[in-house]
Design a protein that fits this description.
alpha/beta, Rossmann fold, 2 domains, six-stranded mixed β-sheet, four-stranded antiparallel β-sheet, 8 helices
Amino acid sequence: MSLESRAAATDDGDEESAVRPESASAVGADADGRRTTGAAPVVASDLTKRYDETLVFDGLDLAVDPGEVCCLLGPSGCGKTTLLHLLAGLEEPTGGRVEIDGDRVTGPDYRWGVVFQDPLLYPWLSVRENVEVGPKLRGEEPDPDLIDELLDLVGLDGVADADTADLSGGMAQRASLARTLANEPEVLLLDEPFSALDQLTKMELQDELLRIVDELGVTAVFVTHDIDEAVYLGDRVAIMGPVPAGIEHVERIDSETRSRDDEAFLAERAATFEQLEAVGLE
């Protein structure tokens, strides 16, 4: 899924459009044509989460195909971040189960990396040292070549030895993403990582994320309350209603470009907005 067309090359060298899931249910279908090297499927089955007397969602099902970008869209308080935390193993479900690549999620694991809204960089470490943290915490010596490649991948090769205090918000988020990628995860779980950034930086990082997902061939689940962002990034958009509704609708994104002024993109945005209205989130 290239950045511009998400096309897949066939064995004879011809390109064909990436095939998106045919189902519009919360459970995904096979997505032929995606680059899925190193990617893993994510499956939530009959998932329930309750905090004391507050039911967040009940019996929620979601499947994300290897190499797919699935956006969780909804207003504040609808359970998007809670669902992401359950997928990441940061919280335990009240009922049901989460599996990544067939393994039950029982806690955090380097194989599924989380990127938060706050970059959470260590201020006493340089940019490079922050990126090296993951392997070191696992008792491994960081691969200098891999760290260099990741810094180059996120556009920070020129500031590798800089103090994190000298970074802009966008650069800090790039460093956070590189730190997560240093663990070579099969799945990226992103919790509104660009929401605190200015619009121009946000748009630049959206493009960077699509490029990185494509180059590394990972699966991604991205939480947002921004319709444009969800439609721009997602292969599918899972729309969550007010608690305890859970996932009310999944919109399959058919546009083959990622141009914000493309007619197909604008049509997808309009269709997604209509679904938000349908579940009372206008």
